[in-house]
Design brief:
With 129 residues, the chain is mainly alpha-helical. It folds into two domains: 65 residues, Helicase, Ruva Protein, domain 3, CATH 1.10.8.50; 44 residues, Ribosomal protein S13/S18, C-terminal domain (30s ribosomal protein s13, domain 2). Helix content is 45%, strand content 3%. It has six helices and two strands. The protein has a two-stranded antiparallel ribbon with strand order 1-2.
């Protein structure tokens, strides 16, 4: 199983798809990397030679922000937004959708499955003592 950028990429998939298992590399970035290294994207990851794997490593680590470095950058950006108390920073702090989505009905993903509304408006009468 080839190991690139601290991530084991699956052997039985095409290399174009396998590279997307690395955090920070999507389909378009993977195709650019393969084009730069002159490797066929239909080739399986297990069929790569050591030279090809080292070429991929060199290209990825040289020109892309990936894995831990990218995660730190994203967390730093969110922290900066919170510190300057802009709209997006406040939304991050409160655990609400950041990118303008409505919150009346469909914001369960960001808030978790929080159900704040009551089924009916009436409370049951208190039990006699």
């Amino acid at each position: 199983m080839p190991r690139i950028a601290g991530t084991n990429i699956p052997e039985n998939k095409q290399i174009g798809i396998s590279l997307t298992y690395i955090y920070g590399i999507g389909r378009s970035s993977a195709s650019k990397i393969l084009e730069k290294s002159k490797i066929d994207s239909a080739k399986k990851a297990r069929d790569l030679t050591e030279k090809e794997v080292s070429e991929l490593r060199k290209i990825i680590e040289g020109s892309f922000k990936i894995e831990g470095e990218l995660r730190r950058a994203v967390m730093g950006d969110i922290k900066r937004l919170k510190e300057i108390k802009c709209w997006r920073g406040i939304r991050h702090q409160r655990g609400l959708p950041v990118r303008g989505q409505k919150t009346r009905k469909n914001s369960r993903t960001i808030r978790g499955n929080v159900r704040k509304t009551v089924g009916s408006g009436r409370k049951p009468p208190p039990a006699p003592k």
